[in-house]
Amino acid sequence: MADQDAQTPVGIEPPALSVLRWDEPPEGPSVVLLDQTRLPAEEAELVCADVPALVRAIRTLAVRGAPLLGIAGGYGVALAAARGEDVAQAAVRLEGARPTAVNLGYGARRVARAHRAAVESGTGPEAAAAVALAEARALHQEDAAASGRMAQYGLDLLAELLPEGGGHRLLTHCNTGALVSGGEGTAFAVALKAHREGSLRHLWVDETRPLLQGARLTAYEAWRNGMPYSLLADSAAGSLFAAGEVDAVLIGADRIAADGSVANKVGSYPLAVLAKYHHVPFVVVAPTTTVDLESVDAASIVVEQRAAAEVTEFTSVVGAPSGGGAGGTAVAPLGTQAYNPAFDITPPELVTAIVTEEGVISPVTGVGLAELCARSSQVTIS
Q1: What is the pLDDT of residue 327?
Q2: Catalytic residue among 35, 206, 247, 254
Q3: Which residues of 322-334 are buried (b: 16+ CB within 10 A; e: fewer)?
Q4: 254 is catalytic
């Protein structure tokens, strides 16, 4: 990656990232991904010609982020249909690739339903596959539009919550930008809009251990967009709050339960506790497709446990199998056990507001969440 002095000048938007696309070369259809395990050093594409390849890409985090996983799930089902494979089985395999991310199952099931309806109406295999692809593309477009609306709602909320003058100093965790979305993202899109409109003073970027999505991906997106930003170790966030250097925390979500409990990248909950203590707004930005009304509360959310090697080793390629030829360097004694949940859960009483494409919920309650989902044009339950 070029150094920060060569970043895109303020006022000039960089070319949009091509994060996920459908391709139809002569050898057959495929889902083409920007391989996020290789960022920021290299912008390389990964071609997934079948569902198993896409499942591997999801599990190794070559493609990640709740909204984008929903899109990937939809295109994965369309890929199975185009290849004449078992669509229902493909949807189940895709949904199981990352169990906490509700959007993944939502996208896969939605496209599978469209395909099944076409088949049941007497449509032939090729036409039914075309229906599935059209539904995946519609999901992709809807997410892009939702991203823009969330950015505006989020910026309007910050204007209400924070004092005027001086610009916003925002802290974010993990990666929530164009790399997770059909558009410009969720929480990061709010910060980006603030930057473009001149109200962002500084973006604080948590490195997000153990896989460094903040350091590798959010810093990369901030750099591309010419934003004023600094990277910090996750454990340094407390000192920033204590020094009065954080005006608001913006994070995304991988699943929001019916009571408003928010599952997000591990490290989110400690930020919520810090924010509460220091009287700093803690804002979650996520589309309504991330709301799972069938998960009643925090106890209903399955938290993905990942490999110990992600904590006990550094690898040259994030998500690569550890040991042997993956370039892993041990940082703990051989045989060390590790606790490595991919997510933690923040209770609704620590969340100042949830920003969606349908509007803002504050205070966060189950009733408010249900009412908002009822207004949504998206299908938010199975």
Answers
A1: 54
A2: 254
A3: beeeeebeeeeee
A4: yes
